[in-house]
Design brief:
A hairpin with a 2-residue loop joins β4 and β5 (164-167). This protein has helices at 44-60, 72-80, 97-109, 122-140, 146-153, 192-202, 206-229, 232-249, 259-268, 291-297, and strands at 6-13, 24-37, 84-87, 157-161, 164-167, 180-185, 272-275, 283-288, 303-308. Helices cover 44% and strands 18% of the residues. It is of the alpha+beta class. The strands form 2 sheets. Strands 1, 2, 3, 4 and 5 form a 5-stranded antiparallel β-sheet that branches. The chain has 10 helices and 9 strands. The chain starts with 5 loop residues before the first strand and ends with a strand. The chain folds into 2 domains: 6-167, Ribosomal Protein S5, domain 2, CATH 3.30.230; 180-308, Alpha-Beta Plaits, CATH 3.30.70.890. The protein is globular.
């Protein structure tokens, strides 16, 4: 038995800001995926994943049944018989490894589930997001529910505010385009919870709150609008500003070995870097108007193109 595939996601814009009402744009990233499997595998990964699922089943049993009900009997039986989540999505990299698992479990075991084939009204999207936030908080302590939502629907999602989200279309990629959005592997794993903790501590300071509103959210919103409308020149201007704000105010979330590289991009305009997810490790997102130039400047690192302009 092998369940359907669920893909990783990339939050192009909106990390941290969406906690405080900024816009956000999340897109599926089909390079990585995961599926529930029951094939009797005794590999180390399968055994570890199965043990993790046992703990997760116990957690799902505590979720308010008014919100969502699962066929816990079938789920428990499948887990006891060795079911595991076979995934190529790297954990702790900001591309939604737990989101894909949550989507797979909901898809297979939720009763009266909202399906992808329905007319997805704002109410249905919000209902799904609320369910997924509850399901995913087992992994992060606090979840927005967006990663599983993206993985479950496999379509780009525009976040206007926490209670106003919609499925959206993004401009078609220019396959031969010079510009690109790319991922850099930082070579280390990022833990979401401690990063969010730092952010919440900073939020207690008035100066940080003002910076978030006047700079971070302003540029994030502009980036989302520019990207969706295909205003590339303006997008890069705003991404540069956003990159600068992150370097100045979100230093703990940027792995130390990238501080110089981050600044170099801003100085040369060869590329601009931003956080991918909560930071602290995992992937870093890069934006460039000339991918060849960026490749040259970042030749010591492994890059993966996500989108071409």
């Amino acid at each position: 038995m092998k369940g359907p595939l669920f893909y990783s996601k990339i939050l192009l814009f909106g990390e941290y800001g969406i906690i405080k009402d900024s816009k956000g744009l999340s897109i599926p990233y089909n390079f990585y995926n995961g599926a529930l499997k029951s094939d009797g595998s005794t590999s180390e990964e399968a055994i570890k994943s199965n043990a993790g699922l046992s703990k997760y089943v116990a957690y799902l049993a505590t979720i308010d049944t008014q919100l969502v009900q699962f066929d816990l009997e079938a789920l428990t039986k499948d887990v006891e018989e060795g079911m595991y989540f076979d995934s190529s999505i790297p954990q702790g990299y900001g591309v939604g490894s737990s989101g894909a698992l949550v989507a797979a479990i909901y898809d297979k075991y939720a009763k009266e589930k909202i399906t992808v084939l329905e007319n997805l009204t704002r109410e249905k999207l919000l209902a799904l997001k609320t369910i997924f936030a509850e399901m995913e908080s087992f992994f992060h302590g606090k979840s927005s529910g967006l990663d599983p939502l993206n993985s479950y629907l496999s379509i780009p999602i525009l976040i206007n505010s926490p209670d106003h989200i919609e499925a959206t279309g993004i401009p078609a990629q220019q396959t031969g385009g010079k510009g690109a959005v790319f991922l850099i592997d930082s070579g280390s794993i990022g833990e979401t919870a401690p990063m969010v903790q730092i952010f919440m501590e900073n939020m207690k300071q008035e100066g940080f709150r003002n910076m978030l509103k006047d700079q971070f959210i302003k540029h994030t919103d502009a980036c989302v609008d520019d990207f969706l409308q295909g205003n590339i020149k303006s997008l890069f201007r705003n991404t540069k500003q956003l990159s600068k704000v992150v370097l100045n105010h979100f230093k703990p979330m940027i792995p130390a070995q990238f501080h110089e590289l981050w600044k170099k991009g801003l100085d040369t305009n060869d590329y601009y870097l931003k956080l991918c997810g909560s930071g602290g490790g995992g992937y870093i997102l890069g934006f460039t108007e000339d991918y060849k130039k960026a490749q040259q400047a970042l030749k010591d690192y492994k890059l993966e193109v996500v989108y071409n302009f």
